[in-house]
Amino acid sequence: MNVIDSEMPFQVLGTAVVASPMILLAVLGVSALVGKPLTESLISRMTQVAVAVALASALTLVGLMLVVGRSYVPVEWGDWVTIPEHHFHFHLKFVFDALSIPFVLLSCVLCGIVGAFTQRYLHREEGYGRFFLYYAIFFSGMVTSSLAGTIETLFVGWEMVGLSSALLVAYFLERENPVRNGQRVWSVYRLADAAFLIAAITMHHMTGRGDFGGLLSTGVWPYGTATITSTQALLVGSLLLVAAAGKSALFPFSGWLPRAMEGPTPSSAIFYGALSVHLGAFLLLRVSPIIQASLLLQLMVIALGTVTAISGSLMSRVQSDIKASLAYASLTQVGLIVIEIGLGLHYLALIHIVGHACLRTMQLLRAPTLLRDYDELENAMGSRLPREAWAGARNLPVDVQRWCYRFGFDRGFMDTALDRWIVAPFQDFFSWFDRVEHRVTDVISRESSRESEQAKLHPEELEKAA
Amino acid sequence: MHDASVVIPANESADSRLGTSIQPESLARAIEHAIEYLPTQGPISIFVHHNTLHSFEHLPFDQAVIEGGRRYGCEPYLSESRYRDELHRGRISIDDLRQVLMDDLGDHADDLVASFGTRYTLRLAMLQVTIDAVPDAELRWLIAETDLLRKFREEVSPQRREQMITQTRNWVARHVAGSARSADSTAASSLPESVLGVMSDFGSGDIQHWSERRWEELTLRLLWQACRDGIQQAQVPSPTASTPLTLHQKISRVTGEDTARVVNDVLIRFVGVFLDQGFADWELPDRDLGFATSFAKLYLEKLVVTPAWMEGIKRELRAIVEGPFDPMLSIADSLARMGIEFDEFDEEICEAALALRGWAGMIWQMETATPFLPKPIPDGSFFEYLAIRLLLQRYAISDVGRRHFGTSDLAQIRSRVDSATEARHQPSIDERTHAIFQVAQIGGWTPQQLFDMTSHQWTCLVNEFQSFSSLERRRILHTAYERHYMVQTLDALAVHARRRRELPRSPETKPSFLAVFCIDDREESFRRHLEEVDPRCETASAAGFFAVAMYYRGADQAHYRPLCPAIIQPNHYVQEEPLFSTIEASKRRANRRRQLGQMKHRVHANSRSLIGGMFTAVFGALATIPMVTRILAPRLTAKMRESLGTFMRPPATELHLEREAEEPGSDPESLGYSLDEMAAIVVRILQDIGHVKNLPRIVVFFGHGSSSLNNPHESAYNCGACSGGRGGPNARAFAMMANDPRVRELVAKRGIELPSEVRFVGAFHNTCDDSVEYYDLDLLPRSHRGLFREIEKSVDQTRARDAHERARRFESAPLDMTPREALEHVEERSQDLSQARPEYNHATNALVTVGRRHWTRGLFMDRRVFLTEYDPAVDDEDVNVLTRILSAAIPVCAGISLEYYFSSIDVEGYGCGSKLPHNVASMVGVMTGAASDLRPGLSQQMIEIHEPMRILFVIETTPEKMARIIEKNEGIARLVEGHWVSVALIDPETSSIMRYVDRQFEPYTPSSNDLPQVESSIDWYRGTRTNLGFASIVDRAPPAG
């Protein structure tokens, strides 16, 4: 009896944190699905309530945990899929610990602020409901992945964040660029997802379960140690590293980050400046015991972080538009955070994430006021603003300086290289198959097949008939 | 604004070296031509409203919108369906349509068309239905899957439908029955061939037992067939577009690839860093060497990854770096290699220049018109840009050729593309049938009638039909849209002027005080409310720089900025300085500002760097606190920040206004004006506002401006007569001049006595938060303080009322607010980071009145009018005063109204699209999203409540005088004669109105004598959000005596 009494509030509060955004998503989603759009004020009111409930429950829970002296609260939602013969079970489990609590609080606070901001910013906008629907997906995804206790739960949240991010990049769907860039973001995300999924399956294979606890013999984050061997850790860890690199736009995937600045300003702020871009780093933090288990893996993480941080800072200095510049500035810090994780400085990394996310959200939210800010700064200083290339630049040979400029200007050549060396060969390979297939079908049908290719490119084009 | 003509170096060597037929002069001409089409908006921090189609101003408006639309790929008018909505809403009445159509057709209105009545009736019918233009594929679907051929359109009245079915039924039945009886086929075959075809497809069965629905379907099918046969008979070619395709367009048609996209990707980024005014920490290396050289050097770096399509370009780039590089030769070379013929020059060059017209226009503007920028660009940048663009274009085309045709040789690609380009899609028979079919239903034309028509009649009908194309219909609908407002306005002015005339008045009473504003439409409501609050006061207006054209620098500002209309280049510099006794204190505060500024700048810059970013990020959580308060409680946060700022704000200041040196300049001793110059300014303004005698004891001049957050277009909301600056200093300077006894002596010599008891006060009205600030009150004599306090009280009440009237347009402001609450609401708006509509700026502007306030006073004009003061009594015989007023007012107001017109008509094409994804680029403009062309024009959020119309001038003068002004002033003539603005003249003493039509003035007959009369403005607008009509507000001025 006593056990239930003491456990009950934790379970209720924990469930409330996760359920509140889900309910918001369900309501907004169903209303959109049945074609009954809600009014602006109703949408914004519901969003505020959902965020407030999640935040309040999380805070109360933290308070309770501090009072009772617990540092770990799991909330189980049971197995959703079980395939006994393959020892597979899809287990939904949320944990509140030293890593997930700061992260979930951060998500709630930033989502709340951006929600309040957007409610006025998008006033009278046709896509108001659509934006908040994506927002609800994103918010649920963030809360789910922050609190995830098993790798499959994390994957669910991870996917929701990815989906909503790509949709928000393509928010202005009547123009070409947002859609194109949204698709690009989505493609990189899929690559990351594939790596993640393989890692998850491998983990299941090794430990028989996806529980992060299963990887760690004893202790709660960050004190656990991995139960797998260092070779196993290297395999899983490198897959997860690829996943994190895609999600956090680390080298060599950084190209999508500035391209993501297509949506309305607040969505850029929260998603690419603040939360989404840190999700990869969060994943690495979550599985940090695995990283600690293999020295080689640790070195890989540090190397990736270093390359990313340096190229991010080069790229940021060269950009002439505010949003791209801030995007790369974010990337620089994410690179540093990854280094910290590689070095095992978990708490520093966590503080760094929280601080950086807040700062960057604010900077992005007020990005359109740049001209006024610069004007005020110039007035205060009474002169034009000083421009310092970069303290270290002066010591480098001129040729190297120029090369660095070009590197930053061309965004680290990452998009070009991916296009030339990955995408183009991939396309060539499959169009070769396509040609073969075409020829074979021609032979079989004894005539030219595929009339569809003869169709005109733009039949919908319309000269004014009347 | 600037002179678009350019001197292009002619290169005699071009022919000899290239051995092509390209002539340098024709190339230079083509480029010069293209430059004229570039947008003329300069850097966004100095936003000046101007006619978007400035380069088409030599054409009449209706022609210009079409030509311009073709050139830029934009719409000329609103869509037909928008106008039709307005028709249903009553914003356009049928009467407007009739009148406009009559005027448009003139003598041809009664021409008979085939057998369907007059041209006028046919066109009127066509105006009232939506004629859908549907492509073939969709048409097939419509026929197969919808009721297109089964049911009449909904607009067709039941009677007409009944009538058509019955007639068709009788016609068909007669023939079929006849053939059955006589058993010889002559009767039935008297039905046309195709009718029989339709009948046999339609299925057999006894037609006697067909249901009503079946007859309806048959009628429609026959109607369709009749139209189709008719179109085929008619000897009318289908309408085609005439402009030839450029190479790039052909390639995109044949291959589906847009070669400009990859080129744009590179150029957007490069032009961005090239034009950058100090945003990026790291400046483009070799920027001073010019566009082409810095580009070439950047792309010649070794150890880099270049995109596949740029393979091989290094050879060309090396030639540029090794020099000498001549952009004209390079352009000629590129064109020759692409096989561009002499007669295609204009189109090709234009396309290249306009492909990124925002950026290209900015390069040209920065080269020619903005000497004040911190990072000017070298001369010749635009030509080099064009050269590089064509160079890249060549490589992009080669790459497409390689992938699609297996050759990278440009000549071969060109011939392949030429042979593969099909003729442009022309409307098919079915598409044209569909159009006529829709009108036939509405017009009640029966199949029988149509089948009976001769091919000559069909030719006539189809011609008539095609000559009244969608574009023509939109032109007529638009004219009707404008006419509706014009009629309302002129009627209201005539009635109101009469009412004002009938009021008892004594001309010699002095008003309690005089308030002078800018002519800006946003001040209309402020003036009206002020007159309601204190009925004994008078208001007047002049262009908001109050004839003080200067470069101004505030005590807490780093640079001079022009405060005068963009067409004037000021000679005078004025600086705000701390009072002599507070110089020390001011220095201390300036120091504090500098220190804080440096700290902020360091945080700002370092937060984007590697190590500095780490420290700022670790403490970044602290940033949440101000962020949360700013977003959740903007107004409170702003108040707190303001009180904290007290320690840094400059203490009491004065203007350095009087010059010691002979010539004006920016050195300390040559700042300011001479006494003579000041006197001239004072005289000019007093004449303009028509107050040369009987001035009250206090005259307040209100400059205006606007402050808002997160708004890259902030400058566009400021005073247009101050080049997008804030007009407070102009008002302050004017008041100082007019108060100076030495200036008054000089003014007296010019015939205007200013008694010593008359005092001028300068003030600043913020149109966003409706705050008002007064200058130099310490200089006001003690005897005037009481009166000033009263004025201040009236102004405070007015602020709240003005905010209240403005708030009705904001959907997020509840309609039941009190004026006080409304004031708080607008204060919050201006401080709110998340507010995309801090105010509505000039949106809804539609009217300019030029004349004495007396006949417009008390007329509710819904903030849609630029009220310009002019008193014919003060003017001389040569109408010099009116001429100088109009030569500023017409171009400026037309510029504002036309920029609003075009941005509203096509917000993506002419405007800058939605504000939400805007991204400040290079500190000179905004892009949409991550990378796009620079976007000039106005945003969706600025124009959403605007009604796109040409502005209507109502001027208090005579036709003879006005005709003389038009004749003598080329700038006015172009706008007036080209119908870019409409003009009407009023004589308030008789309420007679003349309209300017076809180069002459015609009397206007009011169509109604009704004008509602209300107690106060609030009674009239309360509870509504949409545009409101006119109303007279009862005058409460105490009776004379």
From TrEMBL, chain A:
One Pfam family linked to the record: Proton_antipo_N
Record membrane topology: Multi-pass membrane protein
TM spans (from-to): 12-34, 46-68, 99-119, 131-149, 155-173, 185-206, 233-257, 269-287, 293-314, 326-350
MF term (GO), any: NADH dehydrogenase (ubiquinone) activity
NADH:quinone oxidoreductase/Mrp antiporter transmembrane domain: residues covered: 153-365
InterPro entries registered for this protein in UniProt: ND/Mrp_TM, NU5C-like, Proton_antipo_N
Location(s), subcellular: Endomembrane system; Membrane
UniProt domain NADH-Ubiquinone oxidoreductase (complex I) chain 5 N-terminal: residue ranges: 84-132
Record key words, sorted: Membrane, Transmembrane, Transmembrane helix
GO CC terms in record: endomembrane system; membrane
Gene Ontology BP, a term: electron transport coupled proton transport
UniProt cross-references to PANTHER family, sorted A to Z: NADH-UBIQUINONE OXIDOREDUCTASE CHAIN 5
Protein name: Oxidoreductase
From TrEMBL, chain B:
This protein's record includes keyword Cell membrane: yes
Sorted UniProt keywords: Cell membrane, Membrane, Metal-binding, Transport, Zinc
Topological relation to the membrane, as annotated: Peripheral membrane protein
Main location: membrane
Coiled-coil intervals: none
Cofactor: Zn(2+)
One Gene Ontology molecular-function label: zinc ion binding
Keyword match Cytoplasm: no
Any one GO cellular component localisation term in the record: plasma membrane
Source domain of life: Bacteria
Residues engaged in binding Zn(2+): 518, 520, 704, 719
Localization in the cell: Cell membrane
InterPro entries: DabA (IPR018752)
Pfam families according to UniProt: DabA
Oligomer status and interactors: Forms a complex with DabB.
Homology family: Belongs to the inorganic carbon transporter (TC 9.A.2) DabA family.
Protein function: Part of an energy-coupled inorganic carbon pump.
Descriptive protein name: Probable inorganic carbon transporter subunit DabA
Gene designation: dabA
